[in-house]
Task: inverse folding
């Protein structure tokens, strides 16, 4: 991966790396967190998320996920400012932002394009979650918070203006405006 500096470390579950990420909230019979960018990646309550390569590289090419020269692994930004800089949140879906613990093989990348730093982990689980109330549809804040309780981690509420970065907000505003013209 050109334009960035990467290094690999192995962390025990008892000493994880932490990072920030977005999830889509799916509320049905039970609540679940889903990846915003990867279809089919569901974070199950009380189950460790296990990374797999979804970058078009045959898993037989490398057995260790994440691999330093691939983009595979469970992604989390090193801090909230780095998450904002990536402008990942462009859809007004039921949105959750929060911290995740990553352990096992963890690749940390510093991006040369000033989009922050990113971790890619082998294993992960949410540490704390914040519901973005303005993005909810067909469910109340109380119902969504109760649904997220199945993860057994602290759950709060954060305004959209704090959950997403300025670039994401500008793009979302433009998309909303373009729908009205």
Result:
């Amino acid at each position: 991966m050109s334009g960035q500096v990467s290094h690999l470390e192995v962390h025990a579950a008892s000493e994880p790396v932490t990072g920030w990420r977005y999830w889509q909230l799916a509320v049905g019979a039970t609540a679940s967190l889903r990846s915003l960018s990867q279809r089919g990646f569901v974070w199950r309550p009380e189950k460790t998320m296990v990374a797999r390569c979804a970058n078009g590289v045959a898993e037989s090419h490398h057995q260790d996920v994440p691999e330093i020269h691939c983009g595979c692994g469970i992604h989390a930004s090193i801090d909230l400012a780095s998450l904002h800089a990536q402008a990942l949140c462009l859809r007004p879906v039921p949105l959750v932002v929060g911290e995740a613990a990553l352990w096992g093989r963890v690749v940390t990348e510093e991006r040369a394009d000033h989009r922050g730093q990113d971790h890619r982990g082998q294993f992960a689980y949410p540490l704390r979650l914040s519901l973005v109330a303005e993005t909810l549809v067909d469910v109340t804040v109380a119902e969504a918070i109760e649904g997220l309780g199945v993860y057994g981690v602290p759950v709060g509420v954060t305004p959209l203006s704090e959950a997403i970065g300025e670039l994401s907000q500008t793009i979302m505003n433009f998309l909303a405006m373009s729908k009205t013209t």
Observations:
- The chain has one domain: 4-180.
